[in-house]
Each structure stands twice: as C-alpha cells, then as structure tokens.
C-alpha cells in the first residue's frame, strides 16, 4: 500500500518505519523543513534504539521518502495516518489544533476515496470531529472513512513494541475501511480488537491511565513500607506473581513522566469531568505522582540535614526513563528544581541527554567529584555496575539515594556507602 504519515515525530517515524518493514511504500510529511532535511539525510532527531538503522535502510531502498508538499502527498497516497502532537491544554484536556489543521488540509486536497487513520492520542469523539472538519473543507463530496488506530509504543522499546504488538485496535463503522485495515495488519500475529471509534479512543487513554495508576499505587505503598521497615521490592514480587496483577509497572521509584502518562491521565480526567463523572481514583494518581519527588527530597534532608545550602548533590539521569532522551515531565528535572530551591549545588550526568542544565558533566567521575550525595534518577544500565569503590574516594560524603531501587544495597553498604532507596530495606 501507499501510506502517508503526517507528522514525523516519535510516533509517526516509528509507525512509518514499521510499515516499510512490512513492504509498504511510505511518505513522511511534515511542515518543519529542517526536520525533513535531517530525516532525508538519515539523521534521527530523537533517541530510540534501533530506529536510526531502519531509517538508513529504507531511505537507501527508496521505500521511505520525506516531503513538505502537503497537496501532492495527500493526493498520491491511499492511506493517511495522522501522527501529529496533541499537547496538553491549560485545563488538562488535549489540544487538537494540529489534528484539526491536518483534517482541514486533507479536506482541501482529497482527490479520491481514502482511509484517514488517527494514530495520535486523541480524546473520545475525535474521529467524528476529524470527519466533520474534512467534510467542511471539501470542494466536492469525495467519499472517505476515518479510523481510530491508537499506538501503544513504550519509549525505549518502541521498535520491539511496533514489530510485536500486544494488540492492534481498529475503531471504525465502515466495512470498507475495516477490510483495508485488516489487510494492512495481516502479517501481525496478535489479537485485533475491532470496535467503534469512540471505544478505540477510550482504550488508549484507559490503558495509559491504568498503568499510571499501578505506578502511583506502588509508590504510595512504598511510603508505608518505609515507615514499617519493609522492602517494597519483596511486596512487588509477592503481588506481581498473581497473574491477575502481573509484575509490570510495580517498581517503586520517583514517579512516572514522559510525553504520554502525565498528559493522557489529565486528559481522561478532564473528559470525565465534562461528562459529570469525575475520576477520583485518577485524580489521586496525579497527586501521588506529584508528591513522589518531594518525598524523596525529604529522605535526602533526613540524612544530610534540613539545610542543603552548602551541599553538593550529583544527579545521575535526566531522561524520564532509560533508553530514551525524552525529558518531558521527568521526575529528575522536578527533583533538580526542588533541590535548587533549597539552594543546593547540583551536578548532573546522563549518557544520552545533553540539555545544558547547570553543571552537566560528560563523565560520572566529574559529576560525583566533591559531592555530598549521589542521586540515581534514571535506571540506565550505565549506572548499575559502576566502580563504586573508586567513586567513593571522589565524593565528599558517601551517600547514595537510589530513586530507582536499582543497586545492590548490601554491596554498596559493604563499600562504606550510606544507602537509601525507595523502601529498599
């Protein structure tokens, strides 16, 4: 099939590359000329393992091309995937400005029947909205169908998730569109959920919100475990072995971040409020997540003293999770801001993220030199097996605050460190 991907961000680029792998001809459309030029040269402007190699491969075979010509791209392709951003509006809802702009362009340039697919994360009712905008901007009534087909990609493992999905959700009321989508996904071996567009849109928000709920649940439980001197990792393991619960997203830490969970949870909360059915559970999820970095700072204060003004703290990890350079809503940056408010001196390190925050260093040794404490905020593999004995000699005080519970507590304590995790007793 000839597929157009509108929006060449994280979701759009990954989606396009996977369709290339499936043998389809893909065009990536974006209004950002610099972004298009970079992609044409084979340069991925975000970090995601495995994608840059695929980008080079499919550019060389001409299976994948990029353009800024909106009219030609819409007219030349059979399927159009909308993969533009849906940022958070001030009231917490999803801002659909970019989605509406794309729908308007499609209406203006539609030349024959096409299937329009919303891959962006959008609130319930967006498929109907997109249909209306396209119809309003048509010069003649050319038929088309709109399908909801949400993505379920995890940053850091997007390639694996896209090639081997848990499920594919197709929301449409059109038998023609349903047949085309079945053909598109015929080589994927996973359950396919065929439903109404509104249900498809809800599935995406409900899935992300449920995972965020699991994270906040175990984080709040960890605070209780801290007071009772219980290792929360044992609790996570004990409940995660129940197949009804499973162990995923039960690792206590500093909270969730990234481009999806924070805004998607708030968007669903806003949708529910508009319907007169507030989701009090999800409101508590947001509250717990906001408190988690502050709770961790209190642990630091209990050990180093309430006055952090003359303390130097080394922060390892800036991205919200390992294997991505995404720092949006990162607990690490929230923690850094709070520590700066306490007038602490901050030194930072990340193996991938280079964002020019104050006192960012290239090596871990430079970062921890003279530090009163070291805080692990991101679970990069680089931080698991460091030369802790050597690092200890560089530090002013041997305090480790493990915000990801990723270190062997006994091992580092034997080396003379004071170790504090998240209920990691």
Task: Kindly summarize this structure in a few lines.
Helix content is 44%, strand content 13%. It is of the alpha/beta class and 425 residues long. Strands 3-2-1-4-5-6 form a 6-stranded parallel beta sheet, sandwiched between helices. Strands 10-9-11-12-13 form a 5-stranded parallel beta sheet. A two-stranded parallel sheet has the order 7-8.
Write up this protein.
This protein is an alpha/beta fold. Helices cover 44% and strands 13% of the residues. The protein is built from 16 helices and 13 strands. It has helices at 10-21, 33-40, 51-60, 70-76, 97-109, 126-136, 158-163, 175-184, 197-228, 232-240, 261-274, 280-304, 331-341, 364-368, 388-394, 409-414; strands at 2-6, 25-29, 64-67, 79-82, 114-118, 144-148, 168-171, 192-195, 312-316, 345-349, 373-376, 399-402, 418-420. A six-stranded parallel sheet has the order 3-2-1-4-5-6, with helices on both faces. The chain has a five-stranded parallel sheet with strand order 10-9-11-12-13. Helix 1 (10-21) links the parallel strand 1 and strand 2. Helix 1 (10-21) crosses helix 3. The longest helix is centred in the middle third of the chain and has 32 residues, at 197-228. The N and C termini lie far apart (55 Å). The model has no long low-confidence stretch (mean pLDDT 96).
């Amino acid at each position: 099939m000839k597929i157009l991907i509108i929006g060449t961000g994280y979701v759009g680029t990954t989606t396009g590359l996977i369709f290339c792998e499936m043998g389809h001809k893909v065009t990536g459309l974006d209004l950002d000329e610099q972004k298009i030029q970079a992609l044409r040269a084979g340069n991925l402007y975000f970090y995601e393992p495995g994608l840059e190699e695929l980008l080079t491969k499919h550019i060389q075979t001409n299976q994948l091309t990029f353009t800024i010509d909106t009219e030609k791209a819409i007219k030349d392709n059979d399927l159009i995937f909308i993969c533009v951003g849906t940022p958070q509006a001030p009231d917490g809802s999803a801002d659909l400005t970019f989605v509406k702009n794309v729908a308007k362009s499609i209406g203006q340039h539609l030349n024959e029947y096409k299937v329009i697919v919303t891959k962006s994360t959008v609130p319930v009712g967006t498929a109907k909205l997109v249909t209306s905008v396209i119809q309003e901007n048509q010069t003649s009534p050319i038929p088309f169908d709109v399908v909801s087909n949400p993505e379920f990609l995890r940053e850091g493992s997007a390639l694996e998730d896209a090639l081997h999905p848990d499920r594919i959700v197709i929301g449409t009321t059109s038998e023609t569109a349903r047949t085309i989508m079945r053909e598109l996904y015929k080589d994927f071996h996973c359950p396919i959920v065929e439903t109404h567009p509104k249900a498809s849109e809800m599935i995406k928000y409900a899935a992300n919100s449920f995972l965020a709920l699991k994270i906040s649940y175990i984080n709040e439980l960890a605070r209780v475990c801290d007071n009772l001197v219980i290792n929360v990792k044992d609790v996570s393991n004990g409940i995660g072995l129940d197949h009804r619960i499973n162990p995923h997203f039960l690792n206590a830490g500093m909270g969730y971040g990234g481009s999806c969970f924070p805004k998607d949870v708030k968007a669903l909360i806003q949708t529910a409020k508009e319907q007169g059915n507030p989701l009090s559970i999800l409101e508590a999820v947001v509250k717990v997540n906001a408190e988690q970095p502050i709770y961790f700072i209190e642990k630091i204060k209990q050990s180093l003293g309430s006055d952090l003004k003359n303390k130097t703290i080394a922060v390892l990890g800036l991205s919200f999770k390992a294997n991505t350079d995404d720092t949006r809503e990162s607990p690490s940056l929230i923690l850094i801001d709070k520590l700066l408010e306490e007038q602490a001196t901050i030194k930072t390190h990340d193996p991938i993220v280079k964002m020019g925050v104050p006192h960012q260093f290239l090596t871990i040794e430079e970062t921890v030199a003279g530090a009163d404490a070291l805080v692990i905020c991101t679970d990069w593999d680089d931080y698991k097996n460091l030369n802790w004995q050597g690092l200890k000699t560089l530090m002013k005080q041997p305090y480790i605050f493990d915000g990801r519970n990723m270190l062997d507590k006994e091992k580092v304590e034997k080396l003379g460190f004071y170790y504090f995790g998240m209920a990691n007793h």
